[in-house]
Specification:
Layout lengths: L2 H10 L2 E4 L2 E4 H4 L9 E6 L19 H9 L4 E7 L20 E4 L2 E4 L23 E7 L22 H7 L4 E7 L1 H14 L3 E10 L6 H12 L2 E3 L8
The structure holds pyrazine-2-carboxylic acid and zinc ion.
């Protein structure tokens, strides 16, 4: 069969049988089926990051139905929460004369300063009420050290302190992660880059994320992720039976 013909055949057939083995149409059409060694990571889908919250990401709430839908295809789900102390080092209000979205130098390097957000135990820091990921096995909170931020779910911004997530996933035999949530260019990108660096095959599900996009940060994040081998996919690429 010619390649084009074969592709059409694969797309049309409900099931493809090769040497007596039947592959479902979804496989034939090239969809990704997350297996028992894959985990969905749902990053920071919290009230603080959706319209009405303290650090709203434009259209941040639109990730919720997309995540709810693909979550059904996963056996393993991890949810994260940005979980800051009051007076956290990443808050502009902590630094005299500083305004949100300016930067400052902290002990570990440059830090973007944010409005006060996601303070531990507040409604603002709670998960979005419509997020439905009942299979979630661990809720990992990050950014709770007063003087260190943590965009990544794996490693704090000092690049020394581990959150323990890599160990948790590795001990459970997880090899592949699919990263979703908020915000594409901060916590999602940092989580995906660390996941890849720490040895996981890493996908970012683009339409299951929304960005802050501060001074070109979204473009930079995608370029960096591409360069490091993080795969960019859409939720329609996942086989949600
Ligand atoms: C985030 C800025 C500050 C995020 C968290 O979840 O992307 N961004 N804290
Ligand atoms: Zn934060």
């Amino acid at each position: 069969m010619q390649t084009a013909q074969r592709r059409r055949f694969l797309l049309q057939s409900a099931a493809l049988t090769v040497a007596g083995v039947s592959f479902p149409a979804s496989w034939a059409a090239g969809k990704i089926k997350p297996g028992e060694r894959a985990a969905l990571i749902v990053v920071d889908v919290q009230n603080c990051f959706v319209p009405g919250g303290t650090l709203p990401v434009a259209k941040g709430d639109e990730v919720v139905p997309v995540i709810n839908r693909i979550a059904t295809a996963f056996e393993n789900v991890v949810v994260t929460q940005d979980w800051h102390t009051q007076g956290h080092a990443s808050f502009a209000s902590t630094h005299a004369g500083k305004k949100p979205f300016e930067t400052t130098q902290l002990s570990y390097g440059q830090q973007v300063l944010w409005p006060d957000h996601c303070v531990q135990g507040t409604d603002d820091a709670a998960l979005h009420k419509d997020l439905k990921v009942p299979k979630a096995q661990v809720i990992l909170r990050k950014g709770f050290h007063q003087h260190v931020d943590s965009y990544s779910a794996f490693e704090e911004a000092d690049r020394k302190t581990s959150t323990g997530l890599a160990g948790y996933l590795k001990q459970r035999g997880i090899k592949t992660v699919f990263v979703t949530g908020l915000a594409t260019d901060f916590c999602v990108a940092w989580t995906a880059l660390d996941a890849k660096r720490l040895g996981f095959e890493t996908y970012v599900v683009e339409d299951a994320t929304r960005a802050i996009d501060l001074n070109g940060s979204l473009d930079a994040a995608w370029k960096n992720m591409k360069a490091k081998g993080v795969k960019r996919i859409q939720s329609s690429d996942i086989d949600v039976a």
